[in-house]
Amino acid sequence: MNKLGTRSTHVLFSKSFFLIFFISIVAFTFGSGCIKNFEEESYYNIRDMDISADRTGAAFIDLNVTTYVEKVQGDSAKNTSLLLKAYSRQSGLLETQKKIEIGALKKGETKSVSQVLTLPKAGGYDLQGVLFEDNVQKGNGKIKVYNLDALPADVQETGLGIPEMDFRVKKVEGGKVLVESDIYLTNEGRETSKDFRMLVKVREMDAGLLADKIWTRTGEIKPEATIIQTVNLTMPDQYNYIVEVLIWNNDTIVERGEGYIQLSPIVEVKEKNTTQAREIQTSEFENVVEREMIPEEESMAEKESAPGFSLSLSAILLCSAAILRRRFA
Asked: What end-to-end distance do the CA atoms of the chain give, in Å?
């Protein structure tokens, strides 16, 4: 009887020990986060990449790269991003790169992402898209482009703008007005512009009749530089005009701008709720003298040679005064 009781006690003790051990293992597994290993890992695929030229200049090209990203597997909703790199096929060096956030993708979802890379129009490039999920690389795709330097520049792309115009009366005679027109031309491109043909016309505002026109040239303009081209236009007095500037590339107008000359402006008469033409004495604006721009070097020289004592002369005079004061004290 005692042996049977002792044996039952041992069996009960063993079962209790294994139960406590099992509970400890389960608690350790949950507490240490090992249960996370059972989550489905995310897998992505870059299915395709498309390339098109948004803008083709003389020296640079803007490539629009569309990447199609597919989430093949994974239940977690984590943010993804795409890093697009461009390597020169000639040197193998990294030319430029751009990163864009995609966001969270669902399992089986495909999303298209477009990025624009500005590259020198020289030879070809290897384009590589690298996909990240929470800064962990998950996939990549590649595509190649060739012979970009053989692509012709866009006809409409000049980089030139006409931000402003100034008008000055040079002469009034026989009911005609000679107006000096300063046309500001700014090169907003990334390379020196070509010397384009430029047509300047002055047209009466109401009737649309052409009063005068003249052909000239823009000249070559460096990047981010502004120059002034001046033309003289003749028109009848006491009318309002539109000055049109048209820049031509061969037989195509590639840029235009407008300015206004009002020699007979319309003003509102509030007391009578009507409008009337205001008479302008055009001759009063005739032969306005324009001061020439002084170069910065000459301006500094004038300041240095201004009247007055120099610093060294002032020091000598102070020392002399002190010596004379001690001598006669």
From this structure: 137
Q: Which of 309, 329, 327, 307 is nearest to 317 (CA)?
A: 309
Say which residue the tokens 């044996």 belong to: 7
Integer Cα distance of 268 and 247 in angstroms: 36
Residue 247 to residue 251: CA distance in whole angstroms: 10
Residue 1, pLDDT above cutoff 50: no
d(CA 117, CA 60): 10
Q: Mind listing the domains of the chain with CATH numbers?
A: 43-150 (2.60.40.10), 160-285 (2.60.40.10)
Dihedral angle sign, alpha carbons of residues 17, 23, 29, 33: negative
Distance CA 228, CA 164 (A): 10
pTM higher than the cut 0.85: no
The percent of residues above 70 in pLDDT, for the chain, comes to 67
Q: Please give the Cα distance from 316 to 322 (Å, whole number).
A: 10
Task: State how far the Cα of 305 lies from the Cα of 16, in Å rounded to an integer.
Answer: 107
* 268-313 per-position pLDDT tens digit: 555 656 555 556 555 655 555 554 544 545 544 444 444 544 555 5
